[in-house]
Amino acid sequence: MRVLVAGGAGYVGSHACKALAEAGYEPVTYDNLVFGHADAVKWGPLEIGDVLDAERLDEVFTRHRPDVVMHFAAFAYVGESVTDPSKYYRNNITGSIALLDAMRRNGVDKIVFSSTCATYGVPETLPISEDTPQAPINPYGYTKLVVERALADYERAYGVKWAAMRYFNAAGCDPDGELGERHDPETHAIPLAIHAALGSGPRFSVFGTDYATPDGSAIRDYVHVCDLATAHVKAIPHLANGGESRAYNLATGRGTSVIELLKSVEKAVGRPVPADYAPRRAGDPPALFAVAEAANRILDWSPRYTDIDETVATAANWFMRRHNA
Which of these is catalytic: 11, 140, 142, 211? Predict the structure, then answer.
């Protein structure tokens, strides 16, 4: 079975391509390489193109005749989505509709969509479940919610089957060292802390130490990127065998505070993390963590990496190898 992976040269997408290949699928990466990396495409062909380019999409669908689509091709900087919403509405929403319409034109009726916990906004209760009301507080989260709604509408009207993966803080790197995390600019806490410890980046900023949490810093649910990739792959046979379309939380169910995260990085790197302590950022909730009951029950998925030290170690190993190269 062949899978067209839109955004397959990016962080989560490339790990998904490796997981697909290991599960016996043939991944075909479709990526414009704005944020993706051609050298991360190792388990199938790379087709360079944009999701907004209908003609190029049709060329790729005609050449490879995929059975399923995985869709990771989105801009994902929350702050930028606030200052430049046009970029996000055009790429994340219009681009997704263009991809769905290309699927329709080419007879593909199954898609696994990379969604986000940002669709929930600031929840009133924890842990977050799929029944938690979705109330995004930034354009990025809203664009993902719109695509989720479009998927439901496309199923009703055109029979497109779908799975939407609402994952929390993607973390870690391929433990084999074949893939890593390369964002420019980097906004994820773990690589920022590792760079600070290695001296290859600025001091780490802890935003808020007065939250109502055990150590005063914000708590988040860090999910290993390989676990995310596995869940996306598991959605394919579910859809292929007539399973229901729905959204899934992908989470560990365990929260890790920023200060706990820094301790894990220091343990993995063997050096202290130089840090500055700053006021809270507007819109940052004190804690976010979730249950992934539906993924466990329906997809037989549960995270392999539940110890934050183990997750951080996979990232630290990859960054340290590059640092010493």
Answer: 140
Residue 325 pLDDT > 80, yes or no? no
CB–CB of 288/219 below 8 Å?
A: yes
User: Is residue 277 annotated as a catalytic residue, yes or no?
Assistant: no
List of long-range contacts for 97-101, beta carbons under 8 Å, 24+ apart: 97/150, 98/51, 98/52, 98/53, 98/54, 98/57, 99/6, 99/51, 99/57, 99/69, 99/71, 99/73, 100/150, 100/151, 100/154, 100/160, 101/54
- The CATH code that applies to domain 189-220+253-324 is 3.90.25.10
> Cα–Cα distance between 75 and 147 in angstroms, integer?
13
0.90 cut: is pTM over it? Answer: yes
Homologous superfamily of 2-171+223-250: NAD(P)-binding Rossmann-like Domain (3.40.50.720)
pLDDT tens across 283-306, in order?
788 999 999 999 999 999 999 999
d(CA 243, CA 161): 9
pLDDT digits (tens, 9 = 90+) for 53-98: 999 999 999 999 999 999 999 999 999 999 999 999 999 999 999 9
The residue ranges of every structural domain in the chain are 2-171+223-250, 189-220+253-324
